[in-house]
Design brief:
The chain is globular and about 45 Å long. It starts with a strand and ends in a 12-residue tail after the last strand. It is built from nine helices and seven strands; from the N terminus they run βαααααβαββαβαβαβ. The protein has a seven-stranded mixed β-sheet, sandwiched between helices. 38% of the residues lie in helices and 22% in strands. It is of the alpha/beta class. The protein has one domain (2-205): HAD superfamily/HAD-like (Rossmann fold, 3-Layer(aba) Sandwich), CATH 3.40.50.1000.
Length: 206
C-alpha cells in the first residue's frame, strides 16, 4: 500500500477557487491579496480562510456551484493520478478549499477521497460562514496521520504535493515532499521541487 496526497487549489487546479468566484463579484484583487499572504505564511490560515469567505456573503449558490464545476484543472493532473493508481497508490485530495469544487473534481480527476471545507448556504445564498476538516494550518498534517494509520501506510510510502504554507504540516509526515510551482516557504520544506506547470513531472521521481 502506498499513499499520495494532493493539495487542490493551485496544485490539481490552476488557481484559487475563491478568486474565480470573486472575479464575478468585483473583488478578485482583494481576495488574491489575502490568499497570497496566507500561502506565503504571512497570516494565519484560519484567519485568512474566514476573512475570504466572509467577503462573499450574499453570493448566489447556483452561480458558485456552476463556477466550481467548470474550474481549469492543471495539466497532467488526471494522467498522473491514473498512473499512481496503476502503481498501487491510494490517492487523496486535501484542500483548504471547498467541497463544491473538490467533489466535482473527484469525478473528473479520479482521486479516491477528498477532505475539504464546506461553504454555508442559506436560502440560496452564501452566509459568509465556513466549516470543515481543513480549517487550520495544521489540519492537513493531522488528517494525513489519521489516513496513514487507517491504511497502515508508513511515511516512507507517502507522497505529498502542494504549493503553499498550509501544506507544510503534511510535509512533515512524508518521504516524498513535492513543492509544485510553490511559494518559497514551502520549497524550504520540500525535497522535490517542480517549476514546470505539469503534474506528470512527478512521475519522474517515483
Amino acid at each position: 500500500m502506498k499513499l499520495a496526497v494532493f493539495d487542490f487549489d493551485s496544485t490539481l487546479m490552476e488557481g484559487e477557487t475563491l478568486e474565480f468566484i470573486a472575479k464575478d463579484y468585483g473583488i478578485e484583487n482583494l481576495m488574491k491579496e489575502i490568499t497570497t499572504e496566507a500561502m506565503e505564511g504571512k497570516i494565519d490560515f484560519f484567519e485568512s480562510l474566514t476573512k475570504r469567505v466572509s467577503l462573499l456573503k450574499g453570493a448566489k449558490e447556483a452561480k458558485i456551484v456552476h463556477i466550481c464545476k467548470n474550474l481549469p484543472y492543471t495539466k497532467g493532473a488526471k494522467e498522473t493520478i491514473s498512473e499512481l493508481k496503476k502503481m498501487g497508490y491510494k490517492v487523496a485530495c486535501f484542500s483548504g478549499g471547498y467541497e463544491t469544487a473538490t467533489i466535482p473534481a473527484q469525478d473528473v480527476l479520479g482521486y479516491h477521497v477528498q477532505f475539504s471545507n464546506i461553504l454555508h448556504f442559506k436560502n440560496g445564498e452564501m452566509t459568509g460562514q465556513v466549516g470543515g476538516e481543513m480549517m487550520f494550518s495544521d489540519s492537513k498534517g493531522k488528517m494525513l496521520k489519521r489516513l496513514q494509520s487507517l491504511l497502515n501506510v508508513e511515511e516512507n510510502e507517502t507522497l505529498v504535493v502542494g504549493d503553499g504554507a498550509n501544506d507544510i504540516s503534511m510535509f512533515k509526515y512524508a518521504s516524498k515532499r513535492v513543492a509544485f510551482c510553490a511559494k518559497p516557504i514551502l520549497k524550504k520544506n520540500a525535497n522535490i521541487i517542480i517549476e514546470k506547470k505539469d503534474l506528470s513531472e512527478i512521475l519522474n521521481y517515483l
